[in-house]
Amino acid sequence: MLEQPTAMHVARIRSSHTDRQGRRREYESRLLRRTYREGGKVRHETLANLTRLPDHVVDAVEAALRGDALTAARGAPGAVTIARSLPHGHVAAVHAMARKLGLPALLGPAGRHRDLALALIISRVAHPGSKLSALAWWPDTTLGPDLRIDDAATDEVYAAMDWLQARQDAIESRLARRHLAPQANPQRMALFDLSSSWLEGTHCPPGERGYSRDGKKGKVQIEYGLLTDPEGRPVAVRVLGGSTAGPAAFAEIAEVVRNGFGLRKMVMAGDRGMITTARIEALRELDGNYGWITALRSPAIRKLMAGDALQLSLFDEQDLAEITSPDFPGERLICCRNPALAEQRARKREALLAATEKLLAPVIARARAGRLAGEAAIGTAVGKVIGKYKMARHFDVTITGASLAIERRQGQIREEALLDGIYVIRTPVPAETLDTAAAVTAYKSLKHVERDFRHIKSDDLDLRPVFHRLEKRVRGHVLICMLAAYLTWHLRQAWAPLTYTGQDPPPQANPVAPARRSGHADATASRQHHENGRPYRSFGGLLAHLATLTRNQVLFAGAPAAVPVLTEPTPEQRQAFDLISTPIPLTLRK
After folding, report:
1. Are strands 290-295 and 266-269 parallel, antiparallel or unpaired?
2. How far is CA 482 from the centre of its chain?
3. Selecting from 3.40.390, 3.40.50, 3.90.350, 1.10.3470, what CATH number does the domain 169-338+421-491 have?
4. What pLDDT sits at residue 144?
5. Residues 317-329: pLDDT tens digits?
6. 401 near 373, Cβ under 8 Å?
7. What's the pTM value of the predicted model, to 2 decimals?
8. Distance (Å, rounded) from C-alpha 45 to C-alpha 232?
């Protein structure tokens, strides 16, 4: 007897069926399985279905796995051939999570359009790129053959995008019921923020000249607002023109939440540039059922300090205090001071002042040497550099026909420094519903939306730049990225033990203090390896490792067709599937 190389065996499963005429038929399924232990229990994993192979081939496979000597078969040329090998693990894991979340049913009724739309979303997670690159990539993985889209044409892909975009309202309404309805979201809170990306081209209707948050000058922009639940799960997205201001975007999403999703009572959290006085007045008109959480701008904070409503002595023994002001009737004002943030802003201001002075030094030297003369010429030279770091307000500039003097406005700098680290949160939500600490935590939860934007734009999903030319295609592209971000959010949570994603951050007694990492995150950062010596991976690195789990088409001598067989998964690959509570599937279709 030969030593058995692996814990694989052929399982023969017999079943029977009696039809309406009383005829009984016997069936035998023959499955290639791998056996392993997990937590003291024996588990079975199906690697291949051998039912359609001839009996003598199945018998030979079974004998080989038992360790019987098969000298003749083993020596025969071409006894076993690997006809093809396709990457499988990464698309299988993303597809499994999509099924677990009910994403296929969420997209719409079964059919070709849905299969293509689902494949576009999975591709955006596992292999972000253009639609044409996804089209070429599908046949090179098991995603194409298993979803039967490996023969898809370009026009079909664009038609699927249009089909998906037409169903956007229905999809987002179901996500809102799942994550924003009172049963799932007892706080009745939603987060909203705005970002932008550039378009390659000049004639797409949503594209407009506007402020680029990516620092991409000379390109038309689109704005897109992301609505999430309090933990940052994406729920809805809206594409707007590149010149759209934050308040207009907030007004649109508030209308969607109230009338589109039918949520009549909500608390909307947004930044200070988005929830303005005009938007607050509009929210107040909605039967008093819509609250908000935002922060005051610097001029409003200075006004509070000038009127003695906000005094620095409030922070002598604590770093947050709740006050009221006649300028904000019916609202709570929660004043916070973060010493670490104050130090950071002071250091940054000093660095920018010094950098501005460094740019001005050559201009001053030229004026003193007489190489630069005349008020107009000197003023032009100063104007080119003094505003580069937005520090012009902190300098007094004196220009004569032959001289230039620049001096810091120390009084103004000291006055601005008084506000370092201070921010004031405003909300009408009563304290019995949301106490002081919870209000601060809710406002700081906007960091979850900022994290989602990082994942959507660069880290995982590569939304930018946008190459589409039709408005509905741009909206469809952003919707695909949002749904992929929804998938990514859940995958990152599940795979936290394998990646650098922090697990179970410790609760903060003081919501103003900087967030602290969990013990797991500290250990991950210091060791860079698991206790067993395996390295931690990034989210993308884990997907790349899962891609090495391939499905091989094995052709046995004398068999009419190849048999799909999975490679032996690594412990990390097996754990990745265990963390999403899914056995490693042989195929994506059940």
Report:
1. parallel
2. 8
3. 3.90.350
4. 95
5. 788 889 889 889 8
6. yes
7. 0.82
8. 35
